[in-house]
User: Fold this.
Amino acid sequence: MARLSYADPNSAEVRGIVERIVAERGSVLHLYQMLLHSPPITEGWLALLTAVRQKSNLAGAVRELVIMRIAHVNGAPYEAEQHAPIALREGLSRTQLDALADWTESGEFSAAQRAVLALTDGMTRAVHIDDSVFDAARPHFSARELVELVVTIAAYNMVSRVLEALQIATSDRRNELRARTETALDQLGGLTRVNYFAGGVLGVDDFVTEQHYLRARLRRRNRYLLGSGVVGGLKVALSGGAGNQTLTIEPGLAIDARGEEIEIGSDVALPLPATGKQLLVQLNYAERLSRPVTVPGQPGEPAENQPSRVEETFRAYVAAAAKPPAVVLARLTFARSRWGVDRKFKVPRARSPVAK
Assistant:
């Protein structure tokens, strides 16, 4: 049982960061609900871990190999439980996961994987590592990938240490994330907007309410008039040879099941796992906080930085199963050591707004 009670994800103080977590992660897991006690820490944590997991050039199978080994060395069951299914989807085998406890005596790992595991063990068990350990990884990775590998090892050691210090477990009871009032009203058709009058004093809540009203109207319009799916563009193509293929998504626009618009302005490239059976190319709406400004603190407290902009962006990824409300762009199948686009798969498309 966790050493602290979990923060309430329905609190107005954390509304923005909770929406961002849901957009980028799909839900608010136990770890993030604990971190919500400190919104600034949660924002920094999410930014770092999103970069490590979703913006790195490091192959997913390498990343998950690192995470699963760290979970074993540090005795972090929550970390292992969360990432075992992801590791399997990224191409690691159940036999490899079972062999991680004694990987030095196992023949299940390639030379590159053994170099990664040795580096992981060295960084996890001691701050300083021998040159020979680092040099063993050099032939297998670019300079960027080596930096990303080291940061991934460091980041997930941080994760396991926080998990175990606070004794976070998947069995812990916690506050459930309730649907926001705006969302519920949006679905029922009853929206709320600000009533302006002379002499009224406008505060942050008034502007937030007005913004939610306008965005809810847009989502409702999209859901009922256009539906969900690809509006235009977003074609998927594959390149590269066996074991080193890359997926490219062309620019375009989609609408998810909630009515959120998802736009890609330039080509997006994603590395594909070396092996597998079937993958779905998916697109999620996401938001990114930016343009920080300095805000004076309360009397006796220091000033702090607050983001002044919310950038509407996206998260593109591949996974074995669909993850609503994501828009599925293509289905990939693996045959003869290569991934291919399944031309029989019918891509969901939004209805055309142009009258016929």
Observations:
- The chain has eleven helices and ten strands.
- Confidence is low (pLDDT under 50) at residues 180-188.
